[in-house]
Amino acid sequence: MFTPSQGATPRREFLQTAGRLTAASALAGVVVPHVHAAEDNTIRVALIGCGGRGTGAAANALSTTSGPIKLVAMADVVDARLKTSHAALAKRFAERMDVPEDRRFIGFDGYRKAMDCLRKGDVAMFTTPPAFRWVHFGYAIEKGLNVFMEKPVTVDGPTTRKMMKLGD
Length: 168
Known about the structure:
It is built from six helices and five strands. With 168 residues, the chain is α/β, with parallel strands linked by helices.
């Protein structure tokens, strides 16, 4: 039979200490904040409505010199308009665009997909017909996005009331 020499740690005490150390090291990963080398302050923009005015509004946004900005998603119900807009913007602002094919959305649900590409606090640009604005605006509020809307924002009483309620 083995008898521990004087000063040796009994097995039970060793296991208890090892368990405490393991638990402490596991919790340290939760408590210690993650450190990042650099912060990304780029404003990400989604263009919803890629007609002539939408392309112009996106060009205005991408022309800013007050901070980093990047167009990351585009949506329209007409494929040709989106393609024409993308080509025109890429010609002038290629370095400020990151809109691959999988972030170019066609169809009536494209606005959702484009806004889903953004982070909270980014910008959704609505240059669509006013009849759709309240739907788009409601989804942007849900997502915590900032919004740029072309005028007129609404053109009738019921839609105006919906927009006012959303604004509250």
